[in-house]
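Title: Comparing notes on inverse folding

I've been comparing how different people in this forum approach sequence design from structure. To keep things fair, I'm posting one structure and asking everyone to reply with a full sequence. Here's the target:
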C-alpha cells in the first residue's frame, strides 16, 4: 500500500495561549434575553491586558462589543429596568484619566459610556438598588473623616506625600500582593445617580466590610430597597482570621442591627430572598475547627432564628448565592471530585441537585427563567452558555473557537488509584497530542497549591496542563489528601502532619504510572506552585534521588518558621499544630528546610518579589541552599510579579524557562545538545 503523508495538526503554544480571550462573570438583562460580560485580551508585543464589555444574546443573536475605548472595563451589571449597564472602570474622558476606578453607565443598545459622579477614593464593587436610581458601592475611606470633600482632600494629600514608608499597628496590613490602604477601611456608600451625590453609610460607626478584597457578595440590598445586610467582623482589634457576623442597616432609620452573631461561626455572602423575609448566607463553624466548610444557612428575619440547612451535605458552598425567583432554593457553585458544578439547593427539602454540570462552573446569573453559566473544562477555556427551560443549552459566544479549532490538545482522563491510608485518590492525566501507548513518554507532575484546592476538569492559564502536554509530557495532577471537593474528612486528614499523606499519594501515583508500558522511567519530573512548591521541596528531602529527573518549585513554601512573614501567619499553627515558639520541632518536622541535608535533585526555583502570601525569601533560601550544597539549581525571580505570573512577557519567560529546565534534565533530549528548542514555540519573539 502506498504511504500517504499525514499533516500533523498544530499544538498549543504559549503565544496561542495568550491570544485566548478570557471571559468574566456574566450579568443578565431583566428579561433574560441578553447577557453582558467583560472579555479580557492580551497584547504580547505591548505586554498589556485590555478588558471590554460584550453584549451576548441568549436567543441566538450576534455578540456585540459594547465598550471600545476602556482599558479595564469590568464588573458589568444590568440595571433592574434593563435600561443601563453599570460597570467599574478607570478611563480617560475629555482628556482626563480617572485617578481611581469609577462608576460608569452605558445603554445596552448603543451609545457611549458615561461616568456618574466622582469618588476620590475609588469604587471597588457595586450593586443596583431595586429602583435603579441608586447604587450601593464599596470604597476605602478614612473612618474618622466626615463627608466626601474631606475624603477627597485626605486622598489628594496622601497621594502627594513625599514619604513612602508604610506604618501600621494592624495585624492585617498586606493581602496576597498589595498593602492595605494605610488608615483606610472599606465602607459601604450610596450614590444617587441623577445627582452623583454620595453618602457614606458607615460614617460615624465602627462598621466596615472585610479588608480582604471585599466584593459585591459581601453585602446585599433588600427587595424593599430599605435595608442592606453585610458581613462584619465585630472583633477588636481586627485580626487576620476574625469571624464575621451579619449586620443589617435600616436606611430610613439609619439604624444598625446585628442579625446573626455567634462567635463560633463565620458568616459571609448574605443574600435576601425574593420576598425579603429570609437571608441566605454562608456559615463556617470555625469554633469547631478551622477547616470547617462554608455551609448554606438561612435566617428568618421575622423570628431572628437562623439555621444551617446544608449540614448533611458534605460540600463547601461558594459565593455568590442567588435565590430562585420562587424563594424555594438557592443557587451557588460547589466543588465535587475535581469538578465544580452549579447547584440548586432546596431549602425546605435540604436536597442539592446539579443544575449545570462542570467542568468548572465559575460564574452564573439568572433572570426571567433564563440561566447563563461560565464554564471551562480541561478541553477549553471558559465559555458562556444560556440555559432555558425546555430548550437545548446554547453557546452564546465563540470567542476562542477559531484559535482552538486547528489545535490537537490531546486527551484528558480521570483516574482513581489507591493512595495514602488505603483510600481512593483521584488524579487527572493529560496526554500529549502525539500520545502512542506503544511508545515511551515522559511524565510531569503538576502539584496543586492550597493545600485545600482540588482542580481537575478545568482550564488553567498559569499551569496550563494542555500546554505542558503539548511539550510531549503526560501531565499528572493528583488531588492528594487535603484537597477540597472530596468531603471534609479527606480535606482535614492532613492537619498537623503536612507532607506525609500528600507525599504518599504523589508517590503512589508515580508507582501507578511506572507500571504503565508507555512511561519512560528515567523521565519523570515533578513541579508545583505554592503548596505544590512546598511539596516538591518536601520531595527533594524525602524521595530517593534519581526517582525524579528534576523539580520545578514555583512560589514554594520552604521554611514554616520564616513563613511567619506571610499575610496568613495565624493560619499556620492551626494546620501545623503548633506555634514555632512553642514546639519548634513539630513545625520543623513539617518543613522542607529541615531536610535540606538530603536535597540532591536538580531544581528550578521561581518566585515573585510581590508575593506576600509566600514571600520570595522562601524561594531564595531554597535556591541558596541548593547552590551551597552543590545541587544543580536555577533561579527565575520576578521583581514585578506576585504569587502568580500575570504579565504576558513574564509568563512566556516562565514557560520557556520551565520547558528548558525539563529538557536540560531529560536524558532523552538534553537541551545542551545544539539546536534543541521547546516544541511548538515560535523561535522568533516579538509580534
Ligand atoms: C488561610 S490562608 C492560606 C491558605 C491558602 N490555601 C487555601 O487552601 C493559601 O494561600 N495557600 C498557599 C500556600 C500557603 C499555605 C500556608 C500559608 C501560606 C501559603 C497556596 O498554595 O496558594
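Reply #1:
Here's my take.
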Amino acid at each position: 500500500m502506498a504511504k500517504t503523508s499525514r499533516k500533523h495538526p498544530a499544538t498549543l503554544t504559549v503565544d496561542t495561549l495568550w491570544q485566548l480571550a478570557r471571559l468574566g462573570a456574566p450579568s443578565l438583562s431583566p428579561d433574560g434575553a441578553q447577557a453582558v460580560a467583560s472579555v479580557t485580551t492580551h497584547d504580547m508585543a505591548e505586554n498589556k491586558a485590555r478588558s471590554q464589555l460584550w453584549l451576548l444574546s441568549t436567543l441566538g443573536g450576534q455578540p456585540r462589543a459594547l465598550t471600545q475605548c476602556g482599558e479595564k472595563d469590568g464588573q458589568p451589571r444590568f440595571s433592574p429596568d434593563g435600561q443601563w449597564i453599570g460597570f467599574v472602570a478607570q478611563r480617560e474622558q475629555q482628556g482626563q484619566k480617572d485617578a481611581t476606578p469609577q462608576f460608569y453607565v452605558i445603554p445596552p443598545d448603543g451609545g457611549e459610556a458615561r461616568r456618574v459622579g466622582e469618588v476620590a477614593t475609588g469604587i471597588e464593587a457595586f450593586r443596583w438598588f431595586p429602583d435603579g436610581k441608586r447604587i450601593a458601592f464599596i470604597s476605602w475611606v478614612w473612618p474618622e473623616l466626615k463627608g466626601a470633600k474631606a475624603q477627597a482632600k485626605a486622598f489628594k494629600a496622601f497621594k502627594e506625600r513625599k514619604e513612602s514608608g508604610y506604618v501600621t499597628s494592624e495585624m492585617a496590613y498586606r493581602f496576597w500582593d498589595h498593602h492595605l490602604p494605610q488608615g483606610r477601611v472599606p465602607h459601604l456608600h450610596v450614590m444617587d445617580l441623577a445627582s452623583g451625590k454620595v453618602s457614606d453609610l458607615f460614617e460615624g460607626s465602627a462598621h466596615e466590610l472585610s479588608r480582604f478584597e471585599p466584593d459585591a457578595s459581601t453585602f446585599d440590598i433588600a427587595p424593599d430597597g430599605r435595608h442592606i445586610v453585610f458581613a462584619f467582623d465585630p472583633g477588636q482589634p481586627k485580626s487576620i482570621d476574625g469571624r464575621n457576623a451579619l449586620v443589617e442597616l435600616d436606611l430610613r432609620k439609619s439604624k444598625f442591627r446585628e442579625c446573626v452573631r455567634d462567635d463560633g461561626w463565620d458568616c459571609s455572602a448574605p443574600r435576601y430572598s425574593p420576598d425579603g423575609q429570609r437571608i441566605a448566607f454562608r456559615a463556617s463553624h470555625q469554633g469547631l475547627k478551622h477547616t470547617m466548610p462554608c455551609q448554606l444557612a438561612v435566617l428568618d428575619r421575622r423570628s431572628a432564628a437562623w439555621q444551617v440547612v446544608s449540614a448533611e451535605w458534605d460540600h463547601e458552598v461558594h459565593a455568590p448565592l442567588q435565590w430562585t425567583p420562587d424563594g424555594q432554593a438557592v443557587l451557588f457553585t460547589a466543588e465535587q471530585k475535581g469538578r465544580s458544578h452549579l447547584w440548586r439547593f432546596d431549602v425546605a427539602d435540604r436536597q442539592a441537585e446539579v443544575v449545570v454540570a462542570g467542568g468548572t462552573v465559575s460564574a452564573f446569573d439568572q433572570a426571567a427563567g433564563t440561566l447563563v453559566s461560565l464554564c471551562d473544562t480541561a478541553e477549553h477555556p471558559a465559555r458562556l452558555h444560556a440555559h432555558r427551560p425546555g430548550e437545548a443549552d446554547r453557546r452564546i459566544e465563540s470567542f476562542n473557537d477559531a484559535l482552538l479549532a486547528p489545535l490537537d490538545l490531546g486527551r484528558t482522563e480521570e483516574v482513581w488509584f489507591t493512595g495514602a491510608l488505603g483510600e481512593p485518590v483521584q488524579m487527572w492525566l493529560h496526554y500529549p497530542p502525539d500520545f502512542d501507548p506503544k511508545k515511551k513518554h515522559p511524565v510531569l507532575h503538576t502539584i496543586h497549591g492550597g493545600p485545600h484546592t482540588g482542580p481537575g476538569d478545568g482550564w488553567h492559564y498559569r499551569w496550563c496542563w494542555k500546554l505542558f502536554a503539548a511539550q510531549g509530557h503526560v501531565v499528572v495532577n493528583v488531588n492528594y489528601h487535603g484537597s477540597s471537593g472530596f468531603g471534609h474528612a479527606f480535606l482535614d486528614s492532613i492537619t498537623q502532619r503536612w507532607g506525609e499523606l500528600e507525599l504518599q499519594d504523589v508517590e503512589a501515583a508515580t508507582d501507578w504510572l511506572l507500571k504503565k508500558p508507555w512511561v519512560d522511567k528515567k523521565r519523570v519530573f515533578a513541579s508545583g506552585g505554592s503548596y505544590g512548591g512546598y511539596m516538591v521541596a518536601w520531595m527533594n528531602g524525602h524521595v530517593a534521588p534519581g526517582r525524579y529527573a528534576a523539580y520545578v518549585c514555583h512560589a514554594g513554601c520552604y521554611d514554616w518558621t520564616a513563613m511567619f512573614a506571610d499575610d496568613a501567619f495565624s493560619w499556620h499553627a492551626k494546620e501545623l499544630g503548633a506555634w514555632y515558639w512553642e514546639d519548634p520541632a513539630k513545625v520543623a518536622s513539617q518543613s522542607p528546610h529541615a531536610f535540606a541535608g538530603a536535597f540532591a535533585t536538580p531544581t528550578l526555583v521561581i518566585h515573585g518579589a510581590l508575593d506576600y502570601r509566600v514571600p520570595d525569601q522562601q524561594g531564595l533560601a531554597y535556591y541558596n541552599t541548593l547552590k551551597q550544597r552543590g545541587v544543580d539549581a536555577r533561579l527565575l525571580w520576578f521583581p514585578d510579579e506576585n504569587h502568580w505570573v500575570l504579565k504576558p512577557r513574564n509568563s512566556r519567560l516562565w514557560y520557556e524557562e520551565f520547558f528548558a529546565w525539563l529538557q536540560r534534565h531529560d536524558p532523552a533530549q538534553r537541551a545542551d545538545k545544539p539546536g534543541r528548542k521547546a516544541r511548538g514555540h515560535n523561535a522568533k519573539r516579538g509580534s
